[in-house]
Amino acid sequence: MVRVSDRDAVVATMDDVTTDSSEGTTCPDCDGTLQVTDGELVCSNCGAVVDEHRIDHGPDWRWFNDDDDETDPSRAAPSDPTRHDDGLGTEIGKTEQPVSARRRRQLSRIITQHSRTRTTRPNSRKELEVVFATKRLANALELPDSGRDRATVVARTAHQARNWCGTPLSAVVAASVYAVCREQEFPLRPQDIVDATRGSVTRRLVVSHGHTIAEIADVELAILTAPDHVPRVASAVNTTEQTTQTAIDLAAAVADQPGWSRSPSGTAAAAVWISGQAHRGGAVDQRTLSEVVDRTPVALRNAVAEFEELGLVDRGCPVTITLDDCRGGDDV
What is the residue extent of each domain of the chain? Predict the structure, then answer.
């Protein structure tokens, strides 16, 4: 094993030998004079490299302790499953530096040609449309970044695993978003997704294809309860934080009652109305709540009456809420 000092001495000796041997020699191509430049034996006349001796004796900035270490600067960027090409394609960015009109037209032609060659197969172009449509729908529903990325991956998986011939692309995208909302417990109804697609799909397609995509992409569909819908309903009618928290406790108490058959969204709307009546300044119109959850005012009043039958609400003046199951007998 050669030590560092010995290695440097050997390299210096070899460089000296190369320099000495190059004096008085001629180029084999043009009979020009050879000279050493940066460790290479180069002809000063034609520029031919006759011999080279370039060894980088500096450190190798790599990690060998863990193959999964993404901080290694010698490795490429990780793949991105939310993109149709896994993030391995070339992107032509934009510059803020001033360019001439001729250069601007040239860059425009290059970008146009690049966009045409990003996908070479019809299936790839279809997958690119699926990715863009899924991200657009997720942004319209104001899903977090985790939900948007997960919906994109699920839509890509469903598109690759099955031939959706005869099924509109918007239905596959909407069903993928619906499955992810159920998986991550986002309180969105199928009708909310239909409205975000501007009526291009039906509620029946969203639900039926959502269950199919859940089986294909191994998505676990969670069951949303009434307390999960309360924040969305309360946010839509701009209630106070105290009203929202009381409505969540009330919805959780009634959801544990045996024989309760009201829908989760309708139960959440009734809990928000009762909580708003119990707290001053938080009263909400029943018609407004019924429009938020897509129910009739009559169904909302019937749900409130069932709350009263269970002994959780006293519709006196003022309204009193008894949460024995949630707060150990405290009244609101």
Answer: 4-52, 124-216, 226-331
